[in-house]
Specification:
The chain is α+β, with helices and mostly antiparallel strands. It folds into 2 domains: 190 residues, no CATH class; 200 residues, no CATH class. Strand 3 and strand 4 form a beta hairpin. The strands form 3 sheets. Strands 3-4-10-6-8-7 form a 6-stranded mixed barrel. It has a two-stranded antiparallel sheet with strand order 2-11. 49% of the residues lie in helices and 19% in strands. The protein is built from 12 helices and 13 strands. The radius of gyration is 32 Å and the shape is elongated.
Length: 406
């Protein structure tokens, strides 16, 4: 019997109605659903594109895996189980880092900054050379300590890679009480010469971070050579990050945390997910408004086909059969709009990805020239389910109160 209902609903969808207004309203209903569906695909794809872009920026600096202590700020690199990592065959490089806050001064300019002390293997765990914007990367040239600040931090201090003066670095003594008579004696003082600047295009990095050598950071913050705040892990080529992460967590135990790139930037990606969720909710409300067109067109069709309903009733069709016919009709209108919108949205996104129709700008302040997009199958499936579910709900709400006149 369901085949008959689908056949009648399909004929109603494309056949000429008793009143031309019904055809127009049905077309408007399908077009409204298609436009909102395409908009949902485009908006979600653009958000995916920006998320992927920022992820790539972070990946230029952040390691594949980062080992940090579960409690406290520092870890020992000469004790088990940390020392056992150096014998693993699935790890390409392990770089130690020590990060603390210090005061940076150049002549009359001074400001607090996050000093990141790195060792000679830092280059193996970060694509640092690709994000150098001025000068070159070096934290020790064999004779002098070097520093590589973020581009924003360098601008605030008033320096660039071509300055020959020394940067003065200060940190409070960790092992002594403050001398109130001579507060300057309570500070550890080091100096370094600027080698270059880098830019990740993220404020937390570019405006606050400065790279120095690990020995300099250890002296400045009064730690020994076996102390670090984290270990940067670079897997060997072909090793899956997830499997290595699980293995490291098991071998290191509960005293350490192993963070992938998403967990290292957990706050950022959480905000991105929340923004995406709020965007979906907003677009669903817009789709809900568009669904009222389906209710209107289906109601008009029910009135227009009252005589057909009587004929079907006399031929033996019960009330539920006739209701299912109009329910399928309303769902077909929604499905037609959903299919058109999905195709249009995906084609628009693919066109933007390949041709860059919508531009962000041409100035140097933009990282990219066109809006980034990334179509994800999960988003397409989610939008399809939402649109079809709302279309079915709108049709069901219309036909459930329908009465068949004999």
């Amino acid at each position: 019997m369901l085949k008959v209902e689908r056949y009648i609903a399909w004929r109603y969808l494309f056949s000429k109605k008793g009143h031309n207004a019904i055809n127009i309203v049905s077309g408007i209903s399908a077009a409204a659903v298609a436009m909102v569906t395409a908009a949902m695909i485009c908006v979600l794809s653009v958000m995916n594109g920006f998320g992927k872009l920022v992820e790539q920026m972070f990946s230029e600096f952040d390691p594949v895996l980062l080992v940090v202590p579960a409690e406290g700020q520092t870890l020992r690199t000469d004790t088990f189980p940390i020392h056992s990592l150096y014998a693993r065959e699935d790890i390409h490089a392990i770089s130690r880092q020590l990060e603390q806050t210090a005061l940076v001064r150049y002549k009359d300019h001074q400001m607090p900054a996050r000093l990141l002390g790195v060792d000679s293997l830092f280059r193996e765990t970060a694509h640092i050379d690709s994000i150098i914007t001025d000068g070159y990367f070096s934290v020790w040239d064999g004779a002098f300590e070097r520093a590589v600040p973020g581009r924003g931090l360098a601008a605030q201090i008033g320096i660039n890679a071509h300055f020959t003066g020394a940067l003065h670095l200060y940190a409070p003594r960790r092992t002594e009480r403050v001398n109130m008579l001579r507060p300057d004696k309570s500070l550890v003082h080091e100096h370094a010469f600027i080698a270059g600047t880098f830019a990740v295009n993220q404020i937390d990095y570019d405006d606050q971070l400065m790279l120095v050598s690990l020995p300099l950071a250890q002296r400045l913050f009064e730690y020994d050579e076996h102390t670090a705040t984290a270990l940067r892990i670079q897997p060997k080529e072909g090793v899956k990050t997830a499997s290595l992460k699980a293995a490291l967590r098991q071998s290191l135990g509960e005293g350490y945390r192993v963070l992938d790139r998403y967990e290292q930037q957990q706050d950022f990606f959480r905000i991105l997910r929340i923004e995406k969720l709020l965007t979906v909710i907003l677009l669903v409300f817009i789709l809900l408004i568009a669904s009222f067109n389906i209710i209107g067109s289906l109601s008009m069709l029910i009135i227009d086909k009252r005589e057909d309903s009587r004929i079907l009733s006399h031929l033996g069709a019960d009330e539920q059969t006739i209701k299912r016919t109009f329910l399928i009709e309303g769902w077909l209108i929604s499905s037609l709009g959903a299919l058109s919108g999905l195709v249009a949205g995906v084609l628009l996104c693919l066109g933007q990805e390949h041709f860059g129709w919508l531009k962000l700008g041409t100035g140097s302040e933009y990282v990219i020239s066109a809006y980034p997009v990334q179509v994800q199958a999960g988003d397409v499936l989610l939008v399809a389910v939402i649109v079809l579910a709302l279309g079915f709900a709108a049709a069901w709400g219309t036909v459930r109160k329908m009465r068949i006149e004999n």
